[in-house]
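INPUT
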Amino acid sequence: MKGAFKSLSAAMVKGFLRDKATLFFSFVFPLMFLVIFGLLFRDAGAEKIKIGAVGDGPVIAALEQTGAVEVQRFGSVDEGVAKVRDGDLPGLVEATGDKVLLRFAASDQAQAGTVRGLVAGVTQQLNVTASGQPPKYEFDAEQVEDASLKPIQFLTPGILSWGIAITAVFGASLTLVNWRRKQVLRRLRLAPVSPTTILTSRILVTIGVALTQALIFVGVALLPVFGLTLSGTWWLAIPVFLCGVLAFFTIGMLVGALCKTEEAATGAANIVVLPMSFLSGTFFPIDLAPPWLQAASKALPLRHMNDGITDFLVRGKGPEALLVPCGVLIAFTLVVGFVAAKVFTWEDN
Amino acid sequence: MTETGAGDAIVVGDIRKSYGDLHAVDGVSFAVGHGEFFGILGPNGAGKTTTLEIIEGLREPDSGSVRLLGHNPFPRDTALLPRIGVQLQASAFFDKLTAREQLETFAALYGVGAERARETLELVGLADKADTREDKLSGGQRQRLSIACALVHDPDIVFLDEPTAALDPQARRNLWDVLRAIRARGKTIVYTTHYLDEAEILCDRVAIMDQGRILAMDTPAALVRGLDAPTRIILERGSLPAEAAAALPGADEVTEDEQSLTISSRTPAPLLAALAERGTLDGLQVRTATLEDVFLQLTGREYRA
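OUTPUT
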């Protein structure tokens, strides 16, 4: 029985590795999304304000040192004002001797306020220093870690969960349909091999493929270009990941049990996974969606896999946070698995 | 060998299977002895495959009994399965594996080593295609690989469902050699075909099936003999006038068409001697009855595969 298990697993792995289309959709396709979204959103929220400058002096030098603005120099005031008027720059600082003049565009109130505050702050700071007196009021800034994540931090668990979900659903359903249609299932039924052996070897291969996907995927996301940072409890994401793989494997088995042809199975698998990926925060945080959609997405396994992996991979939550995602995913596996076993047939007639 | 008894490899007793109004198998009984090459013949839809599937234990008959090596094949009996080998109509192969890998995978399912897989590949004449992927093999090679997958665990009984269907004549003949080699190893073979000529050449005994029933069952020679059909001697048209042919000794009936003159005879020996005497043996053909004639007589209709 051990030989049968090994040889069946080996046959499936070879079939998988030799199918270029499957390899592409399992490894390259999700990575493409990571690369595209990762690079697209890399600088989101971190873009610096540009400000024009004419002349020279300590104020302009100090502005450059703040690191909060990018200073663009102009030869003449007219040239700079023209840029402000066109809306290309929020403001222009003109420094002549001891006089600092800020001209700003009023169209964007928030940006105008920022620019005014910044230039005024820098100028007053220099005034205090020049007076030689210690400042009366002390000012200090301290950073607070907020719950909103940098794009790569939510993109990685999202696209990873989605990539694993499609591979597991497609892999399981297409193998089942193909084996039934080509009478491999019938041939296996005529061999002294138990259905459990066939099923467990398929599960093992699915988990192996998913682990490989995850390693490559997280490895790429950790590259400096993308800059994923793992939390201290990242390894707690593994149980969530395994429960997720099992949940999507059983969904694949159900699709494979219901469909007679590979084409039908491909269509059905897409219908299951594609809407789920949009409703589960794969490509954008689900917090941005309307409340009713957020509530509805709680019914989807991909949402829980995604949330669970995010909680440990990047948010660093403790083991108590395993309960909900693993519980939901296991319940999903059991219910869907039970239905799949009920509708499963060895032959199509 | 044809007697029904405890020593038979397969005993089928009055099995029936219906799908709605269609009686796919409608009371079939036969026995196959150890080492026998038994053919189930008939046109498509005659019930051959369903009969085979019931014997293999893939389907439960509505009624009737099957004993396969003394055991009931249904429900699935994993102790019995290693003793039978089944080649299915569709080639049941794993995707993207080479011929050798397919065989090794099936061998492992039965706990049989890779060495045996190599031997089986040789037996079916595919040793030089061992590293070719299944989808790159020709139709005949695929069919031989499919048979190899049924043989790799050295079963006592081999079931072959239409192994020569859709093959070109050369591939068919190559496959006959494989079937003969299997038989020489002492295996019991049950095979279905719609090629009556092929069954006549290969089988020890055949059952002719039509519409779910066995119409006749015996050795091919006995079935043809039982027809008591005349021998037909065919000559080129114009080599002999029809009246002269009718006057020859032993000539029962003379017919003519555009190409040939056919003389039917129940005593062909004096007729052939007389033709030889006249020197009209050029292009002469002698045709005795075939299983197709048996089918025609049994069903009253021309055989169409």
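end of record. Chain A has a mean pLDDT of 87.
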